[in-house]
């Protein structure tokens, strides 16, 4: 069976976890629990520790977390709690769980699971917030927080496309705005491929895709939200030589 990886995907509304074999096959059930609110470190860390222990034995851990992550330290996590800015999450969890651990931005992890490793590949995640990851020939350009970039009317991509915007605008208007955003991102990055994931990607179907300009529609793939877990294996392949990412 080889090494068993515990993959954890932390989101603003839910936390998913699964044990994975090295070939990507599941070694456990897929668990999902609600993210505590407020999601401050003192409340979320015990939840992550308990979840990891409940999942059973593993050799290593991979975590996707909704913030910039620098050397295991979280920066931002505006959709969770201000106290995450500068929090040494990797060190804290390694101390409590005693396992090798890789941690990265959740969109980065999903991107690692999606990309082909050729050309310019952009991943965006649609959920509580708006995540992004940019790869060039399989190499991640780190710390891209596209969701916080001003786009229209002095509002960010996340302001326009996060969960709050979806609830306010309704699905059809939100889909239209997403199409406008993707067109703008294509002009900016000239990506060879765009992968769209996250919980709200389920709201996008083929009818929506074909309304996009053909040059974009031909480069777009809507991916399973489970890549936020499966990408944990790829995270170890790309970053596993360095502890506490």
Question: What can you tell me about this protein's structure?
Answer:
- There is one protein chain.
- The chain has 245 residues and is α/β, with parallel strands linked by helices.
- It contains 9 helices and 14 strands.
- The protein has helices spanning 41-55, 89-97, 106-114, 157-161, 163-169, 171-189, 206-209, 214-217, 227-239, and strands spanning 5-10, 14-20, 31-34, 60-65, 68-70, 73-75, 101-105, 120-126, 130-136, 139-141, 150-152, 155-156, 193-197, 220-222.
- The strands form 4 sheets. A 5-stranded mixed beta sheet has the order 3-2-1-4-7, with helices on both faces. The protein has a 5-stranded mixed beta sheet with strand order 10-9-8-13-14. A two-stranded antiparallel ribbon has the order 5-6.
- Strand 5 and strand 6 (73-75) form a beta hairpin.
- The two termini are 25 Å apart.
Summarize the structure.
The chain has 245 residues and is an alpha/beta fold.
Secondary-structure element pattern, one letter each = EEEHEEEHEHEEEEEHHHEHHEH
DSSP helix count?
9
Biggest β-sheet strands, sense, barrel: 5 strands, mixed
Strand content: 25-35%
- As laid out across the biggest beta sheet, the strand order is 3-2-1-4-7
Return the structural class. alpha/beta
- Could you tell me the mean pLDDT? 93
Poorly predicted runs are: 241-245
The level of helicity is 25-40%
Shape type = globular
Distance between the termini: 25 Å
Quaternary structure type: single chain
Alpha-carbon Rg, integer: 17 Å
Beta strands, count: 14
